[in-house]
Amino acid sequence: MNSFFEFFRFEGFDPLIEVASSYAADIDGLIWLVLLVVGFWFLVAEGVFFWFILKFRAQPGRRADYIDGKNKKHKRWITVPHLLVLGFDVLIIVVSFNVWYKIKMDLPENPDCHVRVIGQQWAWTFQHAGADCELDTADDIFTVDELHVENNKVYHFELQATDVLHSFSVPVWRIKQDAIPGRSITGWFQPTEIGEFDVQCAEICGFGHSVMAAQVMVEDAETHAAWVAENTPVTEVAEAAVEGSAAAPAPAGMEDR
Ligand SMILES: [Cu+2]
Q1: How many angstroms separate the alpha carbon of residue 146 from the centre of ligand 1?
Q2: Residues with Cβ–ion distance below 5 A, ligand 1
Q3: Which of 46, 69, 83, 111 could form an SS bridge with 156, CB 3.0 to 4.6 Å?
Q4: CB–CB of 250/244 below 8 Å?
Q5: Burial of 234 by CB count in 10 Å (0-12 exposed, 13-18 middle, 19+ buried)?
Q6: Under 8 Å CB-to-CB from 98, ≥6 apart: which residues?
Q7: How remote is the CA of residue 145 from the centroid of ligand 1, in Å?
Q8: Which of 199, 218, 228 is nearest to 134 (CA)?
Q9: 156 alpha carbon to ligand 1 midpoint, in Å?
Q10: Which tens digits make up the pLDDT trace of 208-242?
Q11: What is the pTM of this model?
Q12: pLDDT tens across 70-102, in order?
């Protein structure tokens, strides 16, 4: 399966938008597969259609045939395309299930880090796990409309909504996942390109929907560590200092500071 999608990672191939996550090429491959299959048969069907229009056009002295479908030879024009449609349907289902399984069902174990994404009218709140990479600890970093992640790390995200339906969409990562009030939806991603990319809400969520855009900064290890260090809440550093003075062991992730 993977070798099939490798084609879409070919350097000379230029997709419409960047391929910046570990599974973006899989989604592209699926879209290309559907386009090629449907496009090829569209051209064949239109070709046959116009060929028939020309071949059987009105001609002096020729009477129209009445075709009732009882002749086996005639019926093949229905059964053969029908079987082809079913065959290609199965192909598309098999490939898309593989992609679906990889992205939506096969959550990688032991991710490198966690992040909580909360949609609300009309902004995204990102709860970064901080240096310990655990959520809901004192060193969590909250930002609005700005997500910071480290390149090539596997992240689990918890997606939530506080008011209405939203949809967390990062086009370059080929992520689009609905956020549903009352639910926490877990998913994953692994960025593969450093840069600044768009995050958008892909679900009409009210008057300000169109301005519900954010940015994701994919940083190298050094830059990301510096951002985390710079933005870790002061209370945490102060607590650590107090604990440190009481000869308590430093909390996880704070040792090298
Ligand atoms: Cu929204």
Answers
A1: 15
A2: 166, 201, 205, 212
A3: 111
A4: yes
A5: exposed
A6: 1
A7: 12
A8: 228
A9: 21
A10: 999 999 999 999 999 999 999 999 887 655 555 55
A11: 0.77
A12: 888 889 988 999 999 999 999 999 999 999 999
